[in-house]
Amino acid sequence: MRFSTFLYSVKQGMKNIGRNKMFSLASIATMAACIFLFGIFFSVVTNFKTMVKTAEEGVAVTVFFEKGIEQDKIDEIGKEIKKRPEVAKYDFVSADEAWKDFQKEYFKGNKEAAEGFEEDNPLANSSHYEIYLNDVSMQKALVTYLKGLDGVREVHQSEVAANTLSDLNSLIGYISAGIILILIAVAVFLISNTIRTGISVRREEIAIMKLIGATDYFVRAPFIVEGVMIGLIGSVLPLILLYFVYSSVITYVSEKFVFLSSMLNFLPVGQVFRVLVPVALLLGVGIGFLGSRVTTKRHLNV
What we know:
Distance between the termini: 19 Å
Largest sheet: 4 strands, antiparallel
Low-confidence stretches: none
Strand order of the largest sheet: 2-3-1-4
Shape: elongated
Number of helices: 10
Mean pLDDT: 75
Radius of gyration: 31 Å
Number of strands: 4
């Protein structure tokens, strides 16, 4: 495309928006509302998934060894565990470390009771590996593998926690896909109506352009530009609003509900918008392009 043709298409596309002010404003408003809702949903889901991920990191599979096992064999089991794709990290906890942790937890302020076991560690056979997973949904496969390893006496797992977190992740995914599809469908419908109205208004002008030899691309381009501009404007405006809303909400919650700060660790605004801005802009422009492209192909007989 020549630069002059590109400028003409942009100019005509902007004029089309001006000619159909009411439909254009309605489309921009609808697009803005869709992107705003998408942004809110994205922010909530991103923070929730981060919280779920944090909870997942605390879910561990514990592997206990057979009585009298040699350290070399324990190290060999550790190497086998390290090879597994499910494993994010694993820690070895010796019997002495396990006993110290037990004392801190259950003998607080009662050293005399703990001293009674000084010469006899009641957790002498409790050395173990604590294994943390990349994804809790992989826990079942890992546990099955660990139970089959030579030298492993027992494997403890947090089955209820893993299933709950796994179900939450699946639910978030389904809800996200459903809402995004609904928002896209509504926005495409409104933009299509706007473009169709523009085609109706300029039908005679388009016919004359075809009679004097205008190409199909030359005729369609301004309407494509119109749809893209509506999508772009409808994306930028809600992003600006969302930035201030998100910043205000996390500041308000952290100041007014201090007791929730330990449970609700909101992501910084920069971290959320580093992903949200390009996604929302691409979504808006893509919807605008798709809506105008489909409409011109269906209703513009050139």
